[in-house]
Write a structure and sequence with these properties.
The chain folds into two domains: 150 residues, no CATH class; 105 residues, TRAP transporter T-component (Serine Threonine Protein Phosphatase 5, Tetratricopeptide repeat, Alpha Horseshoe). The protein is built from 14 helices and no strands. 69% of the residues lie in helices and 0% in strands. It is an all-alpha fold. Helix 3 runs antiparallel to helix 4. 42% of the residues are buried.
Length: 256
């Protein structure tokens, strides 16, 4: 459900169709330097992104997914701490203190803040059998909202993408914010120029199915299948998006 823009960090991974080999090569390279990461913000963030992306795409085993997302969140928190020492307690602070810490971050903090939100979302997905983990979703949402306030264009509107998902996790009758989610999805598409096909696939799966909007659902998925996936920076994620788009279309008659 929260499998999203988690592959956009290294050109070798983003654009290589041989997805497993590309990511595995990058894993090996990164593992070789992990002992020396220390307080290097860039390396800590790269480690967090790698673990998040690899787990999201390839790890099906629930136990292993939990372990790898634990690592992802660990490195993301270390990156934030290295960047902003006053934010070292961000995970354990009470919510109001947490919000104050987030509010104190500026546009230069957006990269580590976004990486934290991304890793935290992946961690929640892997630990979704825990009510404690689910309760932390509000913190990730607060992070992404602040990213939008600071620089909504970052990662081609990636924060809007996440907020679209968060808003459509539940139907309106149970407190979901479907129309707010739709606006975020549409904003992400506009900002990215439609280059990231996974946004449309997620829009169809999360919003159109939730609202039983078959017309929107099929239109979005056909647009994905008709689009050229070979876009610099998005070839890998677009290839995965096209596969999922076909699966959703194939199952549409049974769903609707």
């Amino acid at each position: 459900m929260l499998k999203m823009l988690q592959l956009n960090f290294i050109p070798e991974v983003r654009n290589n169709i041989s997805t497993r080999l590309a990511i595995l090569r990058t894993v090996v390279k990164l593992l070789l330097i992990l002992p020396g990461i220390c307080a290097n913000v860039s390396l800590l963030s790269s480690a967090a992104k790698l673990y998040t992306a690899y787990t999201s795409v390839f790890i099906k085993d629930k136990v292993r997914a939990k372990k790898l997302t634990d690592k992802a969140l660990h490195y993301a928190l270390r990156a934030v701490c290295a960047r902003r020492p006053e934010a070292c307690s961000i995970r354990t602070s009470r919510y109001h203190a947490f919000v104050d810490i987030i509010a104190g971050m500026n546009v230069k903090d957006v990269p580590v803040l976004y990486t934290l939100g991304e890793a935290w979302a992946g961690w929640i997905q892997a630990h979704k059998d825990s009510l404690i983990a689910i309760a932390e979703l509000s913190r990730v949402e607060a992070i992404m909202k602040h990213v939008v306030e600071l620089n909504e264009l970052y990662e081609d509107g990636g924060a809007h993408f996440y907020l679209g998902v968060f808003s459509t996790l539940l139907p309106p009758a149970l407190g979901g914010r479907a129309e707010e989610g739709r606006r975020h999805f549409e904003q992400a598409i506009e900002i990215s120029g439609g280059r990231n096909l996974m946004v449309k696939v997620t829009f169809a799966r999360q919003y159109a199915r939730l609202m039983f909007d078959r017309k929107l659902h099929d239109r979005l998925l056909r647009e994905v299948l008709e689009a050229d996936p070979n876009v610099p920076g998005y070839t890998l994620i677009n290839t995965l998006a096209r596969k999922e788009a076909q699966e959703l279309l194939d199952s549409a008659d049974n769903y609707f």
